[in-house]
Design brief:
Order of helices and strands: HHHHHHHHHEEEEE
Radius of gyration: 33 Å
Number of helices: 9
Number of strands: 5
Strand content: 5-15%
Strand order of the largest sheet: 1-2-3-5-4
Shape: elongated
């Protein structure tokens, strides 16, 4: 009878071995393609934005978006983000290689539960990365448009001392040697009209013409930035030219020479207006903003 007992024990052991879970293979333990995409989307976006920021600074186009005084700090942060992203990829790869070979049950217990199927979450992540890449690297950087200037309230007095660190211009003596539209706009807003009457500047800017003044002339405008493009304000001076629509379109860049004269009852809120004597069309400057 002893041989039969041993045979039964052997059969029981064999059955137990067949019922035990098999250890997953190295291929099963590694995450799928969609899991990888979903896992690394944040790092990919950080790298894309960091590279785009560094490229914009190198191409001297970062000031389309921020004030020049913040360029160095922004580039520093972009370099740190790029280094951190590279480190995260290296660290993640090391951790992943160390986990290969764990049993499937342990792997499933370690993962967080997902609301969406893995492939759908991965596809959505890939779409976000591709969309951001397209917007950042494919779309050409461009300064703010005249349409946006028309939608924002005209800041006749500029952005002021608190934002720019420069003293507000209230007298003719405070004007810099190469005074801009923004400088003259500050003077018009903060000084009596007599301070500017008879002055003959030559200024550059683009045209915006609110409906209430369009029959009489336009504003010669530029954007002034205190921090970044989000807070950019259009600043400008009134130019008398009833026939401007026959010659120019809104948004056209001009160099206007003329003389400040008293407002002859036109619907400009300023007491002094620029009566043009010579107007030239020009290309948009390489740096269209005022700082």
């Amino acid at each position: 009878m002893q041989p039969k007992k041993d045979e039964s024990a052997a059969l029981g052991a064999g059955a137990g071995a067949e019922g035990a879970p098999e250890c997953c293979s190295e291929t099963d333990a590694r995450p799928s393609l969609w899991e990888r995409v979903n896992q690394w989307r944040g790092v990919a976006l950080s790298m894309i934005l960091a590279v785009a920021t560094i490229w914009l600074a190198w191409a001297e186009m970062l000031t389309f978006f921020i004030h020049p005084r913040y360029v160095f700090f922004t580039v520093e942060m972009a370099l740190l983000a790029l280094l951190a992203s590279v480190w995260a990829i290296w660290r993640g790869q090391c951790v992943e290689e160390g986990e290969v070979g764990h049993d499937h049950a342990h792997e499933e217990a370690r993962r967080e539960p997902r609301q969406l199927p893995t492939w759908l979450a991965g596809a959505a992540s890939l779409a976000v990365v591709v969309a951001v890449t397209g917007m950042v690297l494919v779309a050409p950087p461009a300064p703010l448009s005249a349409t946006l200037a028309s939608e924002r309230a005209l800041a006749g007095g500029g952005v002021g001392e608190r934002s720019t660190g420069k003293a507000v211009i209230t007298t003719l003596a405070q004007l810099p040697d190469e005074a801009t539209v923004g400088d003259w706009a500050q003077l018009l807003a903060n000084a009596p009209a007599e301070e500017v009457l008879g002055q003959k500047p030559a200024l550059e800017g683009f045209i915006i013409a609110p409906e209430e003044i369009a029959e009489h002339g336009y504003y010669l405008v530029r954007f002034q930035i205190a921090c970044c493009a989000v807070d950019a304000l259009p600043v400008g001076i009134p130019v008398v030219d009833p026939a401007w629509r026959d010659k120019y379109g809104e948004g056209q860049w001009l160099r206007v020479s003329g003389e400040f004269t008293p407002n002859p009852g036109m619907p400009f809120p300023e007491e002094a207006v620029l009566t043009s004597s010579n107007v030239e069309t020009i290309d948009e400057p390489e740096q269209p903003y005022l700082f």
